[in-house]
## 1
Amino acid sequence: MSKLTDPSALARAVEKAVAECTITDIHTHLFPPAHDELLLWGVDELLTYHYLVAELFATNVGRLAYENFWHMSKSDQAALIWKTLFVEHGPISESQRGVLTTLRRLGLDVGNRDLGRIRKWFAEQNIDSYLPKVFELAGLDYAVMTNDPFVPIEAQQWDDCKPGVDLLRTALRIDPLIVNWPKACEVMSECGFEAENLDEAGYAEARRFLDSWVARLNPLYMAASLPPDFHFPAAATMASVVENVVIPTARQHNLPMAMMIGVRKRINPALGDAGDGVGTGDVTAVQNLCMKYPDVKFLVTMLSRVNQHELTVLARKCPNLHLFGCWWFCNNPSIIDEMTRQRIEMLGTAVTLQHSDARVLDQLIYKWAHTRKIVANVLTDKYTDILATGWQPTEAEIARDARDLLGGSFEDFIAAE
Ligand code: RAT
Ligand code: ZN
């Protein structure tokens, strides 16, 4: 394939490569349609996304009591959010804009602001054909679910052998084990695993519990969301469970451990899922884990913008550390742009730039459309800079690099022995 020598041809080639790149979405909260009501989709779910619930209360100060909102039906909640955030105020936040991008790309007219018509269109969709259509519009080969055996309704689906879909792969989510050992013990004991104390017997039962779920799910990785005060090593329960349960299991099954660090859970409990906050995490904990266990692989994302530079430097030092995604409060264009530049400047293609964190199927469409635009801009700048040195990339090379950044490097990391 011919080399690109002209800056404007190069820019067009980069835009095309990123637009056409097949993406692997490595962290979502989606489920197969057969898993009861767990798979969320459609306009009312889009509008009641917890990011938008927080924005509703931020906008509607003093005019809406939390309990009144939570007592409303989903459809009334969605109508209120539409009225408040889309009709009475400009929908210019990232999550508000995301709803509009999604509807537009599905071919719906958002210009007339007619929620009734939009609802009618969704009511006519069949989820079995709609799901692959959304994946196609988003340009994904597959997405990774979050499968939490500590949530009874989720575990039930696997007990009942409900069918999956090829577009969704598994990840074993284990938060309670690390952050709430008593609760994890309750769930494990209901399933016949008698973990009780933080001692060798308890750790062994917890490992046996994880082994059983690894066998059942065949996950791509294990994962947990951790608070800003997660430290390692430490005399705390969290560190003991990581050392005695998580690390041996990860090693035994060659399963990376994904750590999502920096969430302060429920700082405003009245907001439900929308009530979590952010705190600066401890990158040294990640460093200590990576150095102490060089034979274990760690996938890491951090929630605080403040942590990003230190974490990126650390990833240059630890081949067993792979960074991913602009997580949650970092998933805003200004921060994605900054993080993407910083990571490429220090890691080249050895990073997974983004995950969607989609909780609602249709969100895949906007999350990836918005990300592609930023990644294309950043890559255009980077290739233009190297073009000025006389290095002339080909279209195939640019496509290769885009794929690495949006799924290829993740797959290589997962596959590494
Ligand atoms: O982004 C989100 O929707 C968060 O609420 C969390 O789900 C977070 O991504 C997590 O996986 O804990
Ligand atoms: Zn998530």
## 2
Amino acid sequence: MKKFFIQTFGCQMNVYDGQRISNMLKVNGWTQIDNSNDADLIILNTCAVREKATNKVFSALGRIRDSKKPDALFGIVGCVAREAGADAFKRIPELNFVLGPQSYHKLPEILENPDSKLLNIDLGGLEKFDEMPQMVESPLVSYIPIQEGCNHCCTYCIVPYTRGREISRPFDDVMRDVHHAADTGAFEICFLGQNVNGYHFENYMLSDLIRETAAINAVKRIRFTSSYPTEMTDDLIKMFGNQPKLLPFLNLPIQSGSINVLTRMNRPYSLNLYIDIIDKLRAIRPDIQISSDFIVGFPGETDSDFEQTMNIARQVKYINSYSFKYSPRPHTAAALMKDQIPDNIKRERLKMLDGYLNDIQREFNESCIGKTFECLCEGPDKTGKHLLFRTPYMQQCIVEKPSFGKIPNLVNIEITAANKSSLRGKIKN
Ligand code: 5AD
Ligand code: SF4
């Protein structure tokens, strides 16, 4: 029996790509294992969004080269493959394949010709969706990509280079995948895209996908990520008011609270527009909560710019956010900007923003104590003594495993305790 090992870094889109690759290999008789030392095929599914992520991949490759079985095939797929291209073979000459985020369906070519080297970082558009076999079994939470790539061209972002220009999948193809996921085990559908709310195919928008998915009985929860502020149309906002299956949680990255920084990031929206969207969402769905991504230390960011980012965080009270130090990336305009910010200042600002975001996250989690949410069971924890659930706000909730009876996938849980990163709860009868 041929064994493969795959490790995925990065975003949900990469998680999805990893699942499709695993599924393709399993359909072809391979067995997945979780130790690269015993594998006949080793795949790193990589992320290039920050320099640290790219470096992590190359150190992992060095370790694998020294510990793998001598005749095992190994290579990278995903965004670092596209970023590094042929250079990856120069850095690690033993690599067998380098396949970009839109060409990983070419993997069988190296399995047929193990003595060759395979490099393909083409932007194949939607080809990969058509060429990979359907999932045999769908995860409880199934990610369905609806568009890939991005046309916004934020000046810090490598994604338009790694995943290409924006392209939306045909409506019928997406719905076929949704039905297939629902028929093979999915309870929750998460629509994915670098610019998910920009989805448009003929006259179809994201709101149409949500409406049609909500009509499927087996689908109990729907969400989507990641959204761009100017594409939050009124039609989409209204969905939060009239589609109860749409979870009351939205990731709406603002990146910075300073209009000067946003302009240099090439994110042309005003803070008024952004706040207006949140006000509308809260009016239509009072229990909605928002999360964001932030970048601190973008070239030219002054103390006053940073203070404005702190102000927007204070104003919106995000419940769960990611903040990053700006990292210059190849193929991006911001990497060439003057006024790069020294690392010690980036670090200080990150600490301050993170400190605040963590405080409000803890406060929100604590405010959930005593409330009851319908939560999705993700299975047992590592000890086997507890079950892990996801609340509608994507918080993890730990529940003592009942000694008898089968637990349904969706259960009402009363929250009994909370800290910054998780909740505790008990099953309500
Ligand atoms: N440096 C730091 N953070 C970045 N992100 C994207 N590009 C960079 C970069 N060059 C962050 C953004 C984005 C998230 C996925 O990663 O906040 O929303
Ligand atoms: Fe990383 Fe962006 Fe590629 Fe996702 S699309 S893997 S976040 S670089």
